[in-house]
Amino acid sequence: MTGTTIIFYLLALLTLVSALLAVTSRQIFRAAIYLLFTLIGIAGFYFWMQYDFIAAVQIIVYVGGITVLIIFSIFLTQQAGELLPKQKMGRQVFAAAAVCCSFALVMLQIGQHNFTVTTEQPVAPTIAAIGEKMLDTTADGYALPFEVVSILLLAAMIGCIVIAMRPDNTLTTEQTI
Amino acid sequence: MSTGLQIALIPLLPLAAFVILGLFGKKYVNRSAGIIATTLLAVSAVLAFYTAYQYFFQYGKVEGVYQKVTAFKYTWLQLSDNLSIDMGAMIDPITAMMLVVVTFISLLVHIYSLAYLKGEKRFATYYAFLGLFTFSMLGLVLSSNIFQMYIFWELVGVSSFLLIGFYYDKPSAVAACKKAFIVTRFADLGFLIGILVLSFYAGSLDFTTLIERLTSYQASELQTATAASFMGISALTWGLVLVFIGGAGKSAMFPLHIWLPDAMEGPTPVSALIHAATMVVAGVFLVARLFPVFQMSPPAMDVVAYTGIISALIAAVIACTQTDIKRVLAYSTMSQIGFMMFALGVSKTGGEEGLGFTASMFHLFTHAMFKALLFLGAGAVIHYVHSNEMKDMGGLRKYLPITHITFLIACLAISGIPPFAGFFSKEEILLAAYQHNPVIFYTAIITSGLTAFYMFRLYFTIFWNKVSPSYPNGSAGRALERAEGEVHGQFPATNGSGRHGEGGFAMMLPLIVLALASCLAGFIHFGDFVTADGKPLITALHLLFSIAPVALALAGTGIATWLFLYENDCPVKYSNKLGSLYKTAHHKFYIDELYLFITKKIIFNLVGRPAAWFDKNIVDGLVNATGSSTNALAEKIRTFQSGKVQQYAIYFLAGVMGLAVLFIYWWK
Amino acid sequence: MLTPGLYHILFISTALFFIGMYGFFARKNLITVLMSIELILNSVNLNFIAFNKYLWPNRLDGVFFTIFIIAIAAAEAAVAIAIIINLYRSHQSIDVEQTEEMKY
């Protein structure tokens, strides 16, 4: 039983338990915090698999950005204090059953599958290698998706502002500057 | 002109009259419709007479035996390799005779109607229907194929329906034409099944082939037909009896006779043509046409004979009690056709044995003459008196002299008094019956006596007896005329002048011609022309034998004279003495009521109502159930669109997983 | 068997995926639904990295997919929050049952 194995199982425990608690907790703020722990667990997995860059991105974006965003929205919609109402029992049972069956099916398929490992020389996922590949304009490079994602982010930003704008902030034609 | 074309023109000319007058008559040629139709029919009559002359005297006889000559034949429907329905014309001794009878009587009726229906609004339609009827009847007698005959049979039924219901705004006429059509149609079902049975065993629908195959003892068809049996009766007998049922319906034999008296609702010339001379003899013609095949089955012959004699007797009894003159004549027709039927039924083939056949055909010929004369004469009387009932008539011999004389001649003919036509034909029938079946003979003699009695009852009550006050010569008569006013219903148009005589030339000419025929037709040696096997038959006059029938006829006449010549109350006294017997006969033996009972109480309630319930609740119910269940299902499915996104997502997942299982485990 | 390999990581990622699905079906609050969606996306990321490490160590495709997914998930979460805030303004509630207006 090596150290890596123990760390792996601890991380697994953390991630799964936090995820379960996140989806079943009746207080919304607690759910958000459990989500936070789940995300940290996943970042831990990335570290364990020695993909440091991704782990860092995960922590910066997900943990630092999205979770904070969710917590802000909880406060903005004044949901923090009360207990969340529970869903109808029938719905819960049906959903749980469907999910469990599907999980079993997928696991069965994965278990029966033979994954073939490639025999080439491995490439270490260092930041330099990632960076070079990202801005590579040849056929194998990711320059185009990079640009597209940046446009998407721009569109998302503008979209959020437009959607969340208060209606009486718009200028009417009579108002002049 | 070739024989084929000449023969084809005979029915086609009246058909042309039907088409022309039917399409253009009402709008363009209403007034002259009668002339057009009469001209076309006159040409057709000339052709018919010429054809008959040619057949009987030129080419019909081969080695002394009259042959069946097929003039032309076209294959119409090829049903299988061996079976086909052809359209063609076949000349036979009986066909030639019928051509003469039908065209002659039809021509006279056309002429008579020129005056009888003058001023009628639907003049052209009437002549169109008459043309259709004549076409159908001529097609029927010329048919070379039994199925073709069935087609024309139905056409005759339709034309009869149209003509009986000519005055369609009278509910009684509408009911009568429906009744006629339904009863004959019902009988025709038997005819159709009989056709199928006979043609199945004979393997052919053609008359010559069918008769050949079912009459020669070596032929395998005859043997299979007699061997196969259903409920103990051979298939051949079944086929023949079913065919006879069809004939019985058309010829108003008991018990399918109920339509004939009601059919008198049509115009009187129509009754003369259809219900005296031509359509009602179609059944007799059918039996005569299939006579060789009937010979092969003694039970079928018995059915024909007994049906004939029963109808004759019943009709004669009923006719003694009726007060509507057309009804009396209708029952008289039924009775005389009964004579023709049983004459066929007792006949055998060959020589003296085949006398019944010849006698029956001879009687058909002479009966057409004097019955048409009787009806046309009755039409003249009705035209004058504006009523059908005997009580409105009497003493008309002063006002209608020609009608009187011709009517008297016809009555003498029908009663079988020599030397008029009816004597010769009836005497031969009675002789045939005497030779083969004593029971039928004695019943027939009694019926002849009754015939004389009721005919002369009719004659005296119309032309002697009393003088009715409701005549145009009396003041009451003139008031009646004015009250009659517009033409409506049965009575022909008058010019309202208050005093009108006996019809015109157009009405009297046919009467005179037919009276001459009734006098002279008896002297034709029918046995030279029309016999069962084609060989000529010398019929001698058996004077000793004729004494009994003539005596009975004279006795009947005498009784009628005593009771009805002058006004007295003896008839009423005697009918009261007979009490319920008289009442039953007067009500036509309650046969109509029996039919109504059977149809309304039994068939409608036991068959009709359950069938209707089944149709409404189960059949309709099934269809409605599919509709309403689809509706209910749709309501259920509609709830899938609940607007709840999470529900959509669950179903989505379930669907995807289901498909995954399907593809992984079952479809490789 | 006990040393963690590809199958173990796949087990975890599948479990996370279906936990996220359960949350998506069974939660009534829109923000909690959003959180479940984030769980699903994360499980997919884990899958990509696992395949990259164990099956295709000579390439970096899995890494890039993960980077892009993280970026897009962030954008999508932002837009979703904006919508939730807008919804809160018009309905005064962010209960999922209050948003059933497109139904039969």
Description of the structure:
The complex is a heterotrimer of chains A (177), B (668) and C (104). Helices cover 69% and strands 0% of the residues of chain A. With 177 residues, chain A is mainly α. Chain A folds into two domains: 1-83, Up-down Bundle (Four Helix Bundle (Hemerythrin (Met), subunit A)), CATH 1.20.120.1200; 124-177, no CATH class. Chain A is extended, with a radius of gyration of 22 Å. Chain B has 668 residues and is mainly α. Chain B has helices at 3-28, 33-59, 93-116, 123-142, 146-164, 171-202, 207-215, 220-227, 235-250, 259-262, 268-277, 282-289, 291-295, 298-319, 325-346, 355-385, 401-415, 421-436, 438-463, 475-484, 505-520, 543-564, 570-578, 580-586, 591-638, 645-666, and strands at residues 61-62, 65-66, 69-78, 84-91, 229-230, 233-234. In chain B, the strands form three sheets. A two-stranded antiparallel sheet of chain B has the order 1-2. Residues 474-499 of chain B have low confidence and may be disordered. Chain C has helices at 6-26, 30-54, 61-91. Chain C has a single domain (6-91), classed as Orthogonal Bundle (Helix Hairpins). Chain C is mostly helical and 104 residues long. Chains in contact: A-B, A-C, B-C. At the A-C interface, helix 1, helix 2, helix 3, helix 4 and helix 5 of A face helix 1, helix 2 and helix 3 of C.
CATH class of the largest domain in chain A: Mainly Alpha
**Structural class by SSE content of chain B:** mainly alpha
Intertermini distance of chain A: 73 Å
List SSEs of chain A in N-to-C order. HHHHHH
What is the fourth-level CATH superfamily of the largest domain in chain A? NADH-ubiquinone/plastoquinone oxidoreductase chain 6, subunit NuoJ
Biggest sheet of chain A, in brief?
none
- Beta-strand content estimate of chain B: under 5%
Strand content of chain A: under 5%
